[in-house]
C-alpha cells in the first residue's frame, strides 16, 4: 500500500523542508467487540521520526484510552477499536510535538535520553541541531512506558567499526568529509607534559581574579604547535572523542546519548555559570581542564554555544584571552566558526545581520586567520547546521569577506 510523503511538521508549508515522513495509513479489521485499527506503515513513519514504532502506537492508546498491541517481528501495530486515519494523524502531530520536536528550535532531529538522579528518572530530547536538551512532560502516561522500555541505541554497534575507519571514536554520521578524527593527526613532537601544564595554569590562576588581569597574562607562552600536539596526544587515551554530525550532533566514545560526557558536563557548567560575576575566563579554563578537554578543538564548539549570548560581539572582547588560549590551530578555528554558525543560525537568528561584526571582532583579536575565514565563507557546509541556515550565515558574512579581499588588494598595490 503506497503512502504519500508529508512534512514532519505539518504546520510548515515549505515543499523543500528537509524533514519528511510517510503519510500515516490505517486499516480497520474485525467486527463488533473485536474491531481494531491496524497501522500498516507504522515502522516507516516511526523510522522517519527516529522513534521506536511501539512509542507512537502506545501514544495513540494513551490518547484514545484504547488497548494497543504490537508484533515487532511481523511488523504489525494495532490499536483496539475503529479509528479513522485523520484522527490518528492529528494524534501523531501531538506525539511529534511532545516527544520529537526540540522545544528550543522546533527541529525534529532529536534523540530521547533517560536521565537518572537517585530514584527520579526524567526524559529529555537531545537536539542534534541546536545542542539544546529540553524535557518532556513527565505527567504523560507514555513516559512510564518509555522508562520501562528505554530507547535502544543502534548507533553503538556501528561505532567501533566507523571509529576505527575514521579515527574519531565513532559517531553517527561518519560522512562529514572534512571532520578529521579527534586530533588523530596530532603527533607527539615534544613539549611539556599535561601535569606540568596543570601546575602552571593553577599557579597563574591563583593571582587572577578578573578578565582584565587575565588579558594581561602571557597565556601564549606554552601553546606552540609542538607543545599543543604533545599535550593533545597525551590526553587522547583518557578523553572521550566528540563526533560532529552534519546536523550538528554531539556525542562521545561511550554513547551519543551520554549526558555525562566531559563535553556535555563542561557545556552545562558554562551555561549555568556564565552570568555569575564571580566566574571569569580563568575559572572557565580551569573547568575545561578539570574535564580534560581544554585543548580539544571540539571543546571550542561547545564553549561558543554555551558562553555567548545575543551580546556576542562584546563578549568576544571580554573573553578574548580565553579564546586565544583555547583556539590554537586551524581545527580550533573551524570549530569556533561552526559554533558561531549554530549561535546565530539556530539559537539567535536575529543575529544573522551581525555576522560581519562578529567575524571582525574575532579577526581583530587575532582569534581567526584570514585564510580560514575566507575558506569557511565560500564553502557552504551542513556539518554544523542544515544547508539553508549555512547559506544564510555565509551570505550575511559577505561584507566582511569583501573587506578582507579589498584589504589584500590594497596591500598588493602598496608593494608594487
Automatic annotation (TrEMBL):
Presence of the UniProt keyword Flavoprotein in the record: no
InterPro entries in the cross-refs: ARM-type_fold (IPR016024), IF2/IF5 (IPR045196), Transl_init_fac_IF2/IF5_dom (IPR002735), Transl_init_fac_IF2/IF5_N (IPR016189), Transl_init_fac_IF2/IF5_Zn-bd (IPR016190), W2_domain (IPR003307)
Biased composition (Acidic residues): 180-195
Record carries keyword Ribonucleoprotein: no
Alphabetical UniProt keywords: GTP-binding, Initiation factor, Nucleotide-binding, Protein biosynthesis
GO BP of this protein: formation of cytoplasmic translation initiation complex
GO MF term set: eukaryotic initiation factor eIF2 binding; GDP-dissociation inhibitor activity; GTP binding; translation initiation factor activity
Region of interest (Disordered), residue spans: 141-195
Top-level taxon of the source organism: Eukaryota
Gene3D superfamilies with a match to the protein in the record: 1.25.40.180, 2.20.25.350, 3.30.30.170
One Pfam assignment: eIF-5_eIF-2B
A GO cellular component annotation in the UniProt record: cytosol
Entry-linked SMART domains: eIF2B_5, eIF5C
Domain W2: 256-414
Family affiliation: Belongs to the eIF-2-beta/eIF-5 family.
Stored PANTHER family: EUKARYOTIC TRANSLATION INITIATION FACTOR, EUKARYOTIC TRANSLATION INITIATION FACTOR 5
The name this protein goes by in its record: W2 domain-containing protein
Species this protein is from: Serpula lacrymans var. lacrymans (strain S7.3) (Dry rot fungus)
